[in-house]
Amino acid sequence: EPAAQDRVVVTGSLIAGASEDAPLAVDVFDVQDLKDRGSPNIQEFARSLSQSGETTGETSLAGGAATAGTSNVSLRGLGPTRTMTLLNGRRTTENTNAIPTAALQRVEVLKEGAGVTYGAGAVAGVVNFVTRRDVDGLELSLEKKFYEGSKGEIEINALTGWVGDTSNFLFSLTYADQDSLKYTKRPDLLKPYEDLPIQYTGDSPN
What we know:
It is a single chain. The protein is mainly β and 206 residues long. Helices cover 8% and strands 30% of the residues. A 5-stranded mixed β-sheet has the order 1-4-5-2-3. The protein has a 3-stranded antiparallel β-sheet with strand order 6-7-8, with no helix packed on it. A hairpin with a 2-residue loop joins strand 2 and strand 3 (90-91). Residues 9-13 and 59-65 have low confidence and may be disordered.
């Protein structure tokens, strides 16, 4: 009779143990990495990834005003429907604005297609957002960004949690507001095309 074995549980993500020299390399960004990047929101973080294509949200070309209030990750330019978004190893909504940035412990990015492992929804890759498990009490934070010609952005975060011997609880609340920035507030945008500091280097636009 075979000896009893411990049960192995897979939470839906196989990327935590992968290394840079593995066939499917994983980039891991912890809290300090995010702070070094200026504590970006998830949309800004997604745009900063070298393997990321255009993300929708705000008034980007990919979605326009219809996508205001939403954001997503589009790895390798294949779109959010081909990029699997996980929260603590479990599949979640493509709208990453539903994920509290202040509650993140790390972000794991599987940079290559993983359709064999995760299905057609991961052809472009996988992004796994892992939340903190060490919050025991109340944490408050305030972030303000200033832009010339605008009131900028403000974000207020509240985290409360409890850590037990075998389980933990985490509750996150975020309030964010972004003021509009009109093109009339940027004098360079009002100049004739030939006077712009950065010009199109390909064929002349019609």
